[in-house]
Amino acid sequence: MSDNGFGFSFSSDDDDENGRDRGGNQNPFGAFGFGSGGAGGANGLGDILNQFGQMLSGMGSSMNSEEAQGKDGGGVNYDLATRIARQQIGSAQPVRQQDQVAVTEAVRLAELWLDDATTLPAVNGKAGAWNAEDWLENTLPKWKRMVSPVAKHMNDAQLDAMPAEAREMMGPMTTMMRQMSSMNFGMQLGHALGDLAKQALTGSDFGLPVAPDGTIAVLPANVQKAAKDLGIADQEVLVYIAAREAARQRLFKHVPWLVERLVSSVEEYAAGLVIDTSHIEEATRELNLESGDPQAIQDALGRLQGMDMSPKIASRNAQAVSRLETLLALVEGWAEFVVDEALGERIPSTARLTEAWRRRRATGGSAENAFSKVVGIKFDAPKVAEAVELWRRSTVAVGAERRDQVWDHPDFLPTAEHLDAPADFIDGLLDEAGDTGFDEEFAKLEEMLRSGETGPSEDDQERGKDDGSQDGTEL
């Protein structure tokens, strides 16, 4: 263990698992999820067929499982999703004891420093060092809460999009169609979660409360890769990552309404799901099958080959997506600001690490993009930078304590409009601070009157008249 100023150290490995990828990736932000391939980008055809065969081998039992039949799965075959996700992860190395110690010490130090930047108290929960399999196992219950309502309403929307005659003709086949849809959703979700598990740095990278309550989880193997690609000391990256996760968990634990508001936004979005197949119907009409001209039909089919013929997903409750994006931006913006405040003068690389995180968020990793295709919601926060600036200006204007009191109730939070024009929100905070001072002075006056001190003496009143005062009392 080298003397690094932190008192802890990662285990040191120089093999390909902890270095640059085998393809020679030189992207300095690759370990943060930039520019990496999709779910099957690095696999050959043989690998894809082999994986598909493994999936089919368990399909019979999956079809008969309760989740496949929709009793508990909410429209998703989670048995199949979990199996495919584990295949995506492959063989995850167990977390070493020295890495668990390093994560624990990094969280302890991060919590100590965060106390200087926020009035929200530490979580005092468990510091977890996870590998990719741990991430999948521990976050899957919360992902189910996010995904199940979307899948259920999407299945319903697909059936509603069918002509009434077709639904009547299907009859008993409806149950089988739901099972197939559940399996299809499970396959897509499994690929997305498997990729997320390999790229995640913490339990709730994306500002979503998917880690177990009170757990500050860090994936040390992924953090080591990030540190090596960025050329920054492992310990500095670890403390920074731990601080971001600890800051989020402070919000999730001490703002009781926040988690449910995030989940309800997803549920509200799901309740309004509709399937738009108008472009498919239009393309079908262009085939002009009634003409009977084989060459014309062949030409039309050729034009269709390059078109995206998948149904388009939309929601009647678009405001739910806006609310979700705003909440995620406020959570991530607040976490970023308080971490920069707490670590900026203590860890020299804080600015570089913050910039790396911003680029990751701006570009979006392949796993995040894949997940957004599955659930129809892009779990990003496009206005985090604006949120950071809003929290900064709020702190300058009214201080950290009043800034953090904004989280007491959802009605106190900035709106999407405030992210674009924070002046109105800041003015509101300043007005409330002024009103508070007046109320305190008025309370002192009432207390004085109740205690029998009716006011100034007659001499004081006479002097007040000489000064032009009406009653000699200054408020």
UniProtKB/TrEMBL annotation:
Low complexity compositional bias, start-end: 1-11
InterPro entries: Zinicin_2, Zinicin_2_N
One function term, GO molecular function aspect: hydrolase activity
A Pfam family assignment: Zincin_2
Gene3D superfamilies listed in its UniProt record: Zincin-like metallopeptidase, N-terminal domain (1.20.150.30)
Coiled coil segments of this chain: none
Superkingdom of origin: Bacteria
Keywords annotated in UniProt: Hydrolase
Record region (Disordered): 1-32, 445-475
UniProt xrefs under NCBIfam families: putative hydrolase (TIGR03624)
Name of this chain's protein: Hydrolase
Organism: Corynebacterium doosanense CAU 212 = DSM 45436
